[in-house]
Amino acid sequence: MENSTQRFLNLNVRGFRRLAAVDLELRPLTVLIGANGVGKSSLLDALSILASSAQGNLNAAVSEMSGLSAMMTYDRASEVGFGISMTVPNDEPLDYSLTLRPQGAAYLIDRETLKHTAGKPYPFVHIDSSATDIKYYEQDHDRLVRPNWEHNPLESSLSQVPKLFRTPEEFRKRLASSTFYHVLNVEPRSPVRLPQAMRPAPLPGKNGEDLVSTLYYLREADPDRFEAVEDSLKAAFPGFKRLDFPPVAAGTLAMTWRDNRFSKPLYMHQVSEGMLRFVWLATLLQSPGLTALTLLDEPEVSLHPELLSLLADLLREAAHRTQIVVATHSDRLVRFLKPEEVVVMDAAEDGTSTLTWADKMNLEQWLEDYTLDELWHNGRLGARG
Fold it and tell me: Of 74, 102, 253, 308, which is the most exposed, with the fewest CB atoms less than 10 Å away?
């Protein structure tokens, strides 16, 4: 998705957990801050559900979240709705919306549309589905037609759109590519600490299962990117010298950390949690395989505070190649961000979530005397606990 002019513009969510009715502008880098329980992870989950709907995995995603009833805003919602818009070269933006309603123990896709709306005297519709009445725009007939194939009612119409329908298929592919990264597992026998296959890998994997493969591939095929990763490690860890990749079996590589202060290399099972997580983050954010939308939950976990300035720079640079949405609890990370990169999430009196971009909060005079994290501490950005 590198250097693409296409991007997602807005996310709206209705009736999903604390997100009773939210509308969020999506920028190249969108960092969500706020107290525990205000809906930061739920917003990432909403984007993940949209990605699952585009992948044809909506039913699995809803089941993983304990079913639609468990997803709904307490007793205040009778349905759950998600919507996202995206720019389209030489055309008006595309708006996608998906509404789910409980039906027995399962759910019904009550309404689903994909259309161009802005700037036209009338909307141009690619998908228009209501319950079992499914319609796609068919170019040969220049009208909406019902599918002549078996349509799975538990999966979105978007995921079943014929690939020859170019505009909706391009939208589907970009949304489906969205990748959600939770806190990296660095337990002693976790995938990131084990030897890995010597093969091309465009991303280090959600569990770091391709970290070694990705770095080795970068070193061999894209040395400038590999050097950028090592430069980040040198800036973060003054003793760092280089990464090596000794073979351990046919087609399998380990990874070692060379340090100027030690005569012997450190293998991944000897590297600290913070060091390993930073290697993974630096590799991810330099990877050529970054998808259209990258979701990161608490990337600051176990990182020393001095590394957070570097993390902010890595996120900012990667945001030229992917749209990034981050949920964080770290005031130290917020210190190194700009108001136009930060969304403040808070709880209204009824417990539902509110979202406000920090650059819409008239902070200019305050920022003359305080850093952004200090304004969060003193309550100027909203509640912290």
Answer: 74
